[in-house]
Amino acid sequence: MPAKFDLNDSSVVVIIGSGAGGGTLANELARRGIPVVVLEAGKRIEMTEFKNDEVWAFSHYTWFDSRTTSGSWSVAKTSPDLPVWTCKLVGGTTVHWGACALRFQEHEFKPRTRYGEISGASLLDWPVDLKEMEPYYDRAENRMGVTGTHGIPRLPVSNHGKVLFAGAKKLGYTQFETTNMAINPVPRDGRASCQQTGFCVQGCTFGAKWSTLYVDIPQAEATGKAEIRSESQALRIEHDASGKVTGVVYVDSTGKQQRQKARIVAVACNSIESPRLLLNSESSKFPQGLANSSGQVGKNYMRHTTGAVFAVFDKPVHMYRGTAQSGIVMDEARLDTKRGFVGGYQMELLPQGLPSFAQNIIPGGWGRDRAWVVDRYANVAGLWVIGEDMPRETNRITLHPDKKDQFGMPIPNIHVDDHPNDVAMRTHGYERGSALYDSIGAKRVVKVPPYPSTHNMGTNRMSTNPRDGVVNSYGQSHDIKNLFVSDGSQFVSSGGENPTLTIVALTLRQAEYIAAQMSKHEI
Amino acid sequence: MKDAKTSEKVTRRRFLAGSAATIAAAAASGTAILMDAKGAWSVELKSLQPEEARTLMVFVRDLFPHDRLPDSFYATAIAPLSDEAGKGPAAKRVLLDGIARLNSLARTSTGKSYTVADEKARVAVIKQIEGEPFFTKVYSTTVTSLYNQPKLWPLFGYEGPSSAKGGYLHRGFNDLNWL
């Protein structure tokens, strides 16, 4: 039974957001008997309502609230009104994620040490390392049901994967397989097995893919210790004279402003909304915003260095059939500065249905040349280059000076300038991706510029030294001990891997810490 | 599974048979109706006059020229633009001004209206208006409304939704054998 808490109940932990971070934290705390109120800005759309419909899903799941962009990144030109593609739903972006569940590599936790000083980048080592994270990765993989771990078999390779692997082999690559995916190949943990439906991004209609929407949220509610308030957008976090946070002001589903008291507040709204909320919670005691004595809130926004390569073949591929992330090539993920950049990148499959493909293949393109490619849709294969991008203080989220949302809250501006390392990596990725498909006889290769960002990291980074970052290794604010950050905004660097598994692993570690600190009455 | 080439042949014949016969007519209420001469399909466009509707349809075909597609798909694709124009004078202005501009640019270069000018001339006209509000509006609407028609999908070899059919697990997700 879901719990029902009073607005004046100051014993609850208020978690803002219900995605990979917030949903997992709610479950972990509620299981330990800790009362939890989750404020989720989006609606609750249940799994049974999902549709294999790209356009419908996009229009029903996406966070469309206004944002502005600045900087030289290509997204500011190709998609200025929607620079980021995340979900506004219970379950957050775990509803549409591709389920690629990769661990960070050892060197990616220590980029400052391993890459050295990179001009124009604000590299910093994480206050945790891989060894420390391994048990949490292990637990995260087990609870999410990640293929290739815990005796869970790998999913079978699709047509799209076969094309990728054939090209990889031709190029002499050796590290390719069907990706570690949080998708059941066989029934497990009360969830069905993958039917190769192909609409992972529109929400898995079989529930084979892990999502907090139908895994962690119902589990948390079943404890009787968790209440999920959907369509409830947080506006401001409040604090007392001592500087401890005391509650959250939010707009409820009826449009009324409410104030939920709290013992602890955990911010888990992703790398755009979490810093926005902290910055908007400024007060006379914290004039730069909450948790921001370092001035680091909103800085070092990262979204992975990305680019897509699509190839047209003579014969059918039908890339839309089967799991989205059915194949990965990891050979370029290594650290090898001889390539002209630090960090590495993965090559992951990027299938699209016809409506999405037609819209994205050549942004703004028209005429016979573009039509030639779309005409051959059934014979197209595509991969996504996703690699480590450089944190930069100037790549940041700020509050817009004039523009406000429907609740009077300043909208966020996203500023990004590509670092020369990002440009070099993207160029390399385009070249290798093209070579991969050319090696098996592609008739034509199309390079697609970065899409609206789906991997959003940084902006409230961890640090050992409170001057360098916003939170400690447990996501606890350096400034305010009962304020936590529980999402990808804690990331110090982006690594070259999809972020969700690391977010969940960090959250498991954080939940343990919060429970221990609470029982010791430290918070 | 049928591959795209087979359906291309079939549909090109259909297109050639159908397209020439697309009629733009005015309904009693003064709205445009685009239809097939044989009555196989019709699309009502309430905010446009017949010749405006035809011009817009040809323009969208020029943006996304798939010879295998009969006009019905392009007529359907422009319906949301007409609907939106019916809701506000500003949207209608953008649409009508844009259509007028297509015709005036075509006349300047060829002496003919847009739909009568040859494809090369029409492409040259489009290059002149690329990035203008009319172009952006029509492009961003129809790049979705054209390709998001389920009846169009098989013509491109796309099978679409699968969960009601049990996914692609037993329907060819790994049937590729040409590598």
Brief summary:
The complex is a heterodimer of chains A (523) and B (179). Chain A is of the alpha/beta class and 523 residues long.
Number of helical stretches of at least 4 residues of chain B: 6
Biggest pleated-sheet summary of chain A: 6 strands, antiparallel
The portion of residues assigned to helices of chain A is 10-25%
What is the number of helical segments of chain A per DSSP (H or I, 4+ residues)? 12
Name the shape of chain A in a single word: globular
Q: Indicate the mean pLDDT of chain A.
A: 97
Q: Name the structural class of chain A.
A: alpha/beta
> How many E-type strands of chain A?
17
Give the helices and strands of chain B as they follow along the chain.
HEEEHHHHH
What does this structure look like?
Chain A has 523 residues and is α/β, with parallel strands linked by helices. Chain A has helices at residues 20-31, 54-61, 75-78, 111-115, 130-144, 159-170, 216-222, 270-280, 354-360, 368-375, 420-438, 500-519; strands at residues 13-16, 36-39, 68-70, 176-177, 226-229, 233-239, 245-251, 257-261, 264-267, 305-312, 328-329, 345-349, 380-387, 396-404, 410-415, 444-448, 483-485. Chain A has one domain: FAD/NAD(P)-binding domain, CATH 3.50.50. Chain A has twelve helices and 17 strands. In chain A, the strands form four sheets. Chain A has a six-stranded antiparallel β-sheet with strand order 4-11-12-13-10-16, covered by helices on one side. In chain A, strands 5-2-1-9-17 form a five-stranded parallel β-sheet. In chain A, strands 3-15-14 form a three-stranded mixed β-sheet, covered by helices on one side. In chain A, helix 1 (20-31) packs parallel to helix 12 (500-519). The longest helix of chain A is centred in the C-terminal third of the chain and has 20 residues, at 500-519. With 179 residues, chain B is mainly alpha-helical. Chain B has helices spanning 4-19, 50-63, 71-85, 89-110, 119-129, 133-145, and strands at 22-26, 32-36, 42-45. In chain B, helix 2 crosses helix 4 (89-110), helix 3 crosses helix 4 and helix 4 (89-110) crosses helix 5. The two termini of chain B are 17 Å apart. Mean pLDDT of chain B is 88; it is low at 1-19. Classes of the chains: A alpha/beta (523), B mainly alpha (179). At the A-B interface, helix 6, helix 9 and helix 10 of A face helix 6 of B.
